[in-house]
Specification:
This protein is globular. It has 2 domains: about 170 residues, no CATH class; about 280 residues, no CATH class. By secondary structure, it is an all-alpha fold. The relative contact order is 0.10.
Length: about 475
Amino acid sequence: MAFGSMSFLFGFLPAVLLCYFLCPTRWRTARNGVLLVFSLVFYCWGGVRLLPAFAVSCVGNWAAALLVSPGRRHRKAVYAAAVVLNLLMLGYYKYTGFLLGNLAALGMDVTVPSIALPAGISFFTFQAVAYLTDVYRGTIPAERNLGRVTLFMAFFPQLLQGPILRYGEFGPALLDRRESADEAADGAVRFCFGLAKKVLLADALGQVADGAFAAGDHLTVSLAWLGAVAYTLQLYFDFSGYTDMAIGLGRVFGFRLPENFNYPYISKSASEFWRRWHMTLSFWFRDYVYIPLGGNRCSRARHLLNLLVVWMLTGLWHGSAWNFVLWGLYYAVLLIGEKFLWGKALQKLPGLVQHVYALVLIIVGWVLFRSGSLAQVGEMVSAMFGSAPGGVWSGESVYYLRQYAWEWAVAVIAAMPVKNWLSTRLEARRAAGSTAAAATLAWGVKLLAFILLGWSVVRILSTGVQSFLYFQF
């Protein structure tokens, strides 16, 4: 069930809000129970046949965490087995077809099965591994209540696309959170802005990207760049839009979910980009893969190997295809280069040059990410840098610029920290005693959110809503 669907907006969401807030505030267990039931219904909406795999993961990780707590016998062996089983489940559902397909391509007589991918498996598996590891390290105690662990893994606002949660942050809120009208209003505003990002910007710019990547022999230099830039913006507004909706819904229910984006396209290097893009994933790989491998507290050769391993796994996490592996290794090379080769020289360049450097590399990286095959990667990248079968310019490029003019303009502005600037202005007005001006600005934001909600609903009713891009990962 997509957040932008009519069934969610006017069916599921009102139902869960009604049932949740009908429970008195002091009935914390009842409110958690409502969230758990509706989260499982939300998960089953895409196919109840996939629920058993999710249930096994929840029960198995709950039980394993109890057995790996400090002081338990054989806890190291149990921890290792539990992590391996989590990764085997992820590997079976997500990578079996990829592995067997490559073996078949090498001439081996194998049958490539069609395996349905459980929704959100990449996200809830990583949350489970983080929970087990934190319990094993003694960072947090094991949760004895199965329902709370299941809600942690199934919480519907972030189940399908993150942000990736840590139980040490989420667990205490299950017992000690405070819902309020102000928090709910702020959460609703953020949800509306996230929905508008997805429906009004990402889906529209996706039309440009789809047209460019499917141009074939008609591909021109201008169209290749337009398609690459359109996909760069589409992916950001699609994914960050979902994150805004997830964080907004979390605030309605009293949860503070972690931020996942910090205006990544204002970065001045590839390294900075990954401190701003999909931050919860970056932190996960840092804390549970990179540092345990030795991080940078080892020999130069081992450090390079650690970076290569982390970024190859990052690529594979996003998808079971060679272009994702290439994309991960691409960033490994960039980050290694910035760290050991040209990073100091880059920092001495003017800020604008650094921004251009980072943006070009990011856009090329998204071409690797978006392409359906390695051959298409070569076609798009070569076209972008002058070797296009259709020449330099085309009427199709003009069409896409004119047809989506307002989307281009709004997307470029919204990708910059305008929101932070407005928030700073609002706080400055309040601090200066201009309460009337601050209140006017605050209500103006709420009014804009309401208008965007109505506009988004009209757009959904007229054209439908496309699936979120990260659902496939």
